[in-house]
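dumping this here so i dont lose it again. seq + smiles for flavin mononucleotide
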Amino acid sequence: MKNYVELPTNTAYRLINHGSIILLSTRDENGVYDIAPIAWCSPARKEPPKLLAVVGHGHQTYKNIIATGEFIACVPHVSQIEMVQKTGSVSGRDVNKFSDLNIQTLPGKKIDALVPQDCIGWIECKIWDRLALDKTDIIVGDIVHAAVDSDAFDERLLVEKPEGKTLHHLGGHLFATPELVKKL
Ligand SMILES: Cc1cc2nc3c(=O)[nH]c(=O)nc-3n(C[C@H](O)[C@H](O)[C@H](O)COP(=O)(O)O)c2cc1C
């Protein structure tokens, strides 16, 4: 029998916090691009395909998404941890993260936003709906285009290969990357 200890309710999310982190890439109404890490995201529907992300009202990312109605969810490779931490420690209100952090990019295909080079893949979305909470919105996006590194994906993410190593936020400054437990 395991020894279960009570987990404070405000820490319970850390039990399930470690889905792949995404970088939400957006632009404002003047065409200025921004990008920020979002740990709280999830698939929301298979068909028609949708995803959701929880975005704080204070973020430039939030303002951009509301202004344009669209965004790209980029999936960083574990090697891009520094970019994730740095883009999450400053705001697009104050700096241009792409030029300041020298982030090389590709253009989105259907959404006008930037994809960091060498990320594992990306998912382009238009807002389908949003649920306003207290200081955040749950933003649900319709997936209109997606692309992935062909070395990292074959019907599923190939987490057993170096190319498929996603980045998972455990909380604070701690991250993890997945391993395959059992081959099918
Ligand atoms: C690892 C990590 C995970 C984060 N996850 C979220 C999240 O799930 N939702 C959120 O609103 N902000 C999250 N943030 C905070 C924003 O990314 C951060 O405040 C960022 O600087 C906002 O930039 P912006 O003002 O340019 O949008 C996270 C930050 C880090 C470093």
